[in-house]
From TrEMBL, chain A:
It comes from Flavobacterium circumlabens. This is Type 1 periplasmic binding fold superfamily protein. It comes from the Bacteria.
Automatic annotation (TrEMBL), chain B:
It holds the Pfam family Plug. This is Iron complex outermembrane receptor protein. One of its GO terms (molecular function) is siderophore uptake transmembrane transporter activity. Residues 120-215 form the TonB-dependent receptor plug domain. One of its GO terms (biological process) is siderophore transmembrane transport.
């Protein structure tokens, strides 16, 4: 491999050659000087830049979701059940704090409402508004495990986007007998709302990206 | 191992001394008064200068025919062959040309790279074939080089099983600083700008870098030493992606005075297609301008170089996954989750990268044997990665890094008789700025880095057929970072109390830290090249190199959006240290030649990314990959053969195999390229417009040696959580591809040549996945594509 080629061109006139070399020496030293100045300048610049910076501040993670709260209020009075999923350090190492305020009563209809917050920013940011505003690009899904009855979307117009497809912040849970299991609430971003059964709340063909996916262990009391 | 090798060495030295060693000396005589030190004397392989009176001498010459060439501008050059049996004294008389020439150019190639390692080279013709593709694709032509891909536009070279920071790329004598640590960051290079691409396997290229544990990729710009002006334009069209590229260059050559090169490339591609579906959002754009101006005088030359590269790359929509459940579905369904109609539009996720290089270079030649060069270069790499985000954030980059590097280097070369010596110093200052406006905690923090390297390489021809070389390099590096750590992460990593000194501020849930590390590294290389009888060449080299953990390995912390994985760096990481023994056996018969290159590379504290488990976030559970360190051993072999079956028919073969083992756990290493075999049959006929027809078979075996990092996750099936296996470890099956290439040349005008090339990639439209494609969990590789290339030389 050749990285360098030495090139020589020779003149027969040796006197001429001498003068060329002289000339060159001048220009070379000039160029070297220039380069040295440039280098010093750059080094000075890069070492100064640090001092010029103000004290760094942590990145403001405005987009983060830290808290998902689902409140289920029984129709005709009774104790509302609050399901809360809170993870203040998001991708940090701390596990989330999941709280369920109580057990559901049997033979009742509960109206659920989901609120989404970013509690890491100051003031606390209510992301629910953003989801409503961009309803077309969002849909919540409710899945259950165990003996629980299925959750369905509330039929109120406010639960749908401008195309008439569900956004799903509001849900309905009708209890019958005693049951236990998990409720998994998922928010999908840019889902395929026209996928098979997606508008009925089936997540299977929804695709899109998951903004949150939270699981609550819940039970319906036998009393 | 070392001991054995040393014995081997001595054996060769001994063999060597059996050869007769003769000398030639004498005087150059001239009637006129000339500068004798400017007379060129080439005796056999040696370059000599005479003293001021014309006395010269050459030693260590073998028995047999010796070629002598003596020249001086304006005088008739002397070309003769002598049969040498003993020492000889010989005078030469220079005679004036009767027709006087104004000037004559003599090129002397000072091979300054290590010679005990056989280098691999891609020439212009090969590079032009890959005009519409990436550097990584082109390098696959070389045995032992494979690629690490993210989709099909982000391609990184893997040399002998190693990639990333272990394979520095030298672009026109500038070490590319473009955040090469990320596996989804391709080198920011336009292949069209290079006239020649060289691969040095292993770390022996000490003048460039001391940390090239994998190897070096060296790109060189065209340099024309002749007064001429010529140009080239290449047009490409690819049916797969329904787009193409145009690249055009003009070169003004000159031996003295000004010469320059200018090149522009523009590329526009839409979605690529696999045999069964469109690979949605895989389009890309690419623009490059490269230019330089050089002024050459008798004793010096100086040049200014500038290159601007910009690329916009769509990342496969289906690879944007949420939690582990999505990953599970993608792997088990074997079908991309998003397939849209073909489009040229590039949506999020995407990468938008800009790279600039400016260089000033000055070379001074003391005489034919001694030269010095000075170089200053500046690089800026701006990387923007866009992710699918909510609302207006969609237009804000999720990662915004600005990396600036200033370097200064001085090199000195001295050749003397049988000795070649090269030494130099390189200093660089680097700054990385992670823009906090992204609203996402950056994977790579702000940092300042200072590097200082000093090296010396020496080689000596003990005889005409035996050469030894050695090199030593010392590198100093200091990195000062500024990073916010979540307190929970800081505790989980166990950084207290060892690193508590780095903490400089308390911001509620986060620590502000200023980690600082200093490294002192030594690297060395020693080896020999022996030419045995019958054109059999043996190259042997041992190299030792150290690589510092890069910022990604030290500081990564958080969800890597493009892979759906939480990547965790480790401040505890030590530098990697590699010792590689490489042997190359090369033999040329009349019509057949082969090259076999076995090697063993022992790497202490080898850094790799290991899947370790899960972490639950609000977006679901994500797999956690941590940077770990172990002791590794790589053994491999590269084979290349060339057979001229007849005047028209040729056969080319190449094979690359590497076996990587984690010696601490006795397990295979992750991400090692599987055995691959390439066969090419070429038919060429000059009489038929320089017709070339090529059929290439590419076989990539299944990698059967892999560590099991599979894990279980719970998915909901029929109203219950069911644990399922997420198979992230099993490599995809073997595949066999066929490619076709053809070209013809036409003389369009007296001075212009048009080359028309037609090629087909993946002729059989095979659906396959590759173990070393980060997106193998999400989609197949690209299917058949027809390419047309028009090349105009003028």
């Amino acid at each position: 491999m050749q990285t360098n080629f030495n090139i020589y061109q020779f003149n027969l006139n040796t006197n001429k050659m001498k003068t060329t070399i002289k000339k060159f020496n001048n220009s070379a030293s000039k160029q070297l000087k220039m380069a040295a100045i440039a280098l010093v300048a750059t080094l000075a610049f890069s070492s100064c830049s640090k001092d010029d910076e103000t004290v760094p501040a942590p990145v403001n993670e405005e987009e983060l979701i830290t808290t998902v709260t689902a409140t289920y209020t029984p129709v005709g009075g009774g104790t509302a059940i609050t399901l809360k999923y809170k993870d203040l350090d998001a991708e940090g190492a701390n596990p989330p704090v999941i709280t369920v305020s109580g057990t559901f009563e049997k033979n009742k209809t509960y109206n659920g409402l989901v609120t989404v917050l970013n509690e890491s920013s100051n003031p606390v940011d209510d992301i629910t508004l953003e989801i409503i505003e961009e309803g077309v690009d969002h849909q919540l899904f409710y899945q259950k495990t165990g003996t629980l009855n299925a959750f369905s979307y509330a039929t109120a117009p406010s639960n749908f986007d401008k195309n008439g497809k569900p956004v799903g912040l509001q849900s309905v849970f009708t209890t019958t007998e005693a049951a236990t299991g998990n409720l998994i609430i998922t928010l999908r971003h840019e889902p395929n709302k026209s996928g098979a059964n997606v508008s009925n709340g089936d997540i299977t063909n929804a695709s899109g990206a998951t903004d949150f996916e939270v699981t609550f262990p819940i039970s319906v009391s036998s009393l | 191992m070392l001991k054995k090798n040393f014995v081997f060495f001595c054996l060769f030295l001994f063999c060597n001394s059996n050869y007769a060693q003769n000398s030639i000396s004498g005087k150059i005589i001239c009637q006129e008064k000339i500068s004798f030190s400017d007379v060129h004397i080439h005796i056999d392989k040696k370059i000599i200068i005479s003293d001021a009176f014309g006395n010269y001498g050459a030693k260590n010459l073998p028995n047999g025919n010796i070629k002598i060439n003596i020249s001086y501008i304006g005088y008739q050059s002397i070309d003769t062959i002598l049969e040498l049996k003993s020492n000889l004294e010989l005078d030469f008389k220079l005679k004036r040309y009767t027709t006087q020439l104004h000037e004559v150019l003599i090129l002397q190639k000072t091979n300054s790279n290590i010679k005990s390692v056989q280098q691999q080279q891609l020439k212009t013709a090969t590079i032009e074939k890959y005009s519409n593709q990436s550097l990584g694709d082109a390098l696959k032509e070389i045995a032992g080089v494979s690629t690490l891909k993210t989709g099909n536009s982000v391609v990184k070279p893997i040399i002998n099983g190693l990639y990333g920071s272990r394979v520095p790329v030298i672009n026109n004598n500038v070490k590319l600083e473009d955040q090469e640590w990320g596996s989804e960051h391709a080198p920011n290079i336009d292949v069209n700008a290079s006239d020649k691409i060289i691969v040095i396997k292993g770390s022996s290229g000490l003048q460039y870098s001391g940390d090239a544990i994998g190897g070096l990729v060296i790109l060189e710009l065209l340099s024309v030493k002749k007064d001429t002006l010529f140009g080239k334009t290449i047009l490409n069209y690819d049916t797969n992606g329904k787009g193409g590229s145009v690249t055009s260059s003009i070169h003004k050559g000159n031996n003295v005075g000004f010469s320059w090169n200018a090149l522009g490339t523009f590329k526009y591609m839409g979605d690529k297609e696999a045999p069964d579906y469109v690979l949605s959002n895989t389009g890309n754009r690419n623009a490059n301008f490269t230019g330089d101006i050089k002024y050459a005088a008798k004793k010096y030359n100086t040049s200014v170089f500038y290159s601007y590269y910009k690329t916009l790359i769509g990342i496969l929509s289906a690879s944007h996954i949420g939690s582990v459940n999505d990953l599970y579905h993608s792997i088990t369904d074997n079908q991309p989750s998003v397939v849209n109609e073909f489009t040229y539009t590039i949506k999020n996720p995407k990468q938008d990268v800009e790279h600039q290089i400016a260089k000033f270079n000055f070379n001074y030649y003391f005489n034919e044997l001694e030269s010095m060069s000075f170089q200053y270069d500046f690089q800026q790499n701006k990387r923007l990665e866009y992710d699918i985000r909510r609302g207006n954030y969609n237009n804000t980059a999720a990662l915004d890094l600005d990396l600036k590097t200033n370097s200064l280097s001085i090199d000195y070369i001295k050749n003397d008789h049988d000795w070649n010596f090269k030494s130099g110093i390189r200093a660089s200052a680097q700054n990385n700025y992670a823009n906090p406006a992204t609203g996402i905690r950056p994977l790579i923090p702000n940092y300042d880095k200072i590097d200082l390297g000093v090296y010396g390489i020496i080689s000596h021809h003990f005889s005409d057929t035996f050469l030894m070389d050695g090199g030593l390099r010392y590198d100093f590096a200091k990195i000062d970072a500024t990073k916010f750590y979540q307190k929970s992460r800081w505790d989980e990593r166990g950084y207290d109390p060892e690193f508590s000194g780095f903490i400089v501020g308390d911001f509620a849930s986060q620590w502000l830290t200023e980690p600082s590390f200093i490294y002192h590294n030594l690297s060395a290389s020693v080896g020999f090249h022996k030419e045995l009888e019958n054109n059999l060449h043996l190259y042997t080299n041992i190299s030792f190199a150290s690589r510092n953990p890069n910022p990604s390995e030290l500081f990564s912390d958080g969800l890597h959006h493009s892979t759906g994985v939480i990547e965790l760096g480790d401040l505890n990481l030590n530098k990697e240290q590699s010792t590689k023994l490489s042997v190359t056996l090369q033999k040329k018969y009349d019509r057949f030649s082969f090259e076999i290159n076995p090697y063993i590379n022992r790497i202490q504290d080898y850094i790799f990314l290991k899947p370790v488990g899960f972490e639950t976030t609000i977006r679901g559970a994500f797999p956690v990959w941590e940077y770990h360190q172990t002791n590794a051993r790589l053994i491999g072999i590269d084979v290349q053969t060339h057979w001229d079956i007849s005047k028209q028919w040729q056969h080319l073969f190449s094979l690359g195999y590497v076996n990587g083992k984690d010696i601490s756990t006795d397990e295979p290493l992750i991400d090692m390229p599987p055995l691959n075999i390439n066969n090419k049959i070429r038919f060429s006929k000059k009489e038929w417009k320089d017709l070339i027809l090529e059929l290439k078979s590419e076989i990539v075996f299944k990698q059967n040696r892999y560590p099991d990092n599979n894990f279980y996750t719970n998915i909901i099936q029929d109203g219950a959580f069911v644990p399922v296996l997420v198979d992230v470890s099993t490599p995809p099956p073997a595949y066999h591809l066929m490619h076709f290439y053809s070209e013809m040349k036409f003389q369009t005008f007296t001075k212009a040549i048009t080359t028309v090339a037609f090629s087909v990639q993946n002729i059989l439209n095979v659906s396959y996945r590759d173990y070393l494609n980060r997106q193998r969990f999400f989609a197949d590789e690209i299917g058949r594509s027809f390419q047309i290339q028009l090349k105009f030389n003028y």
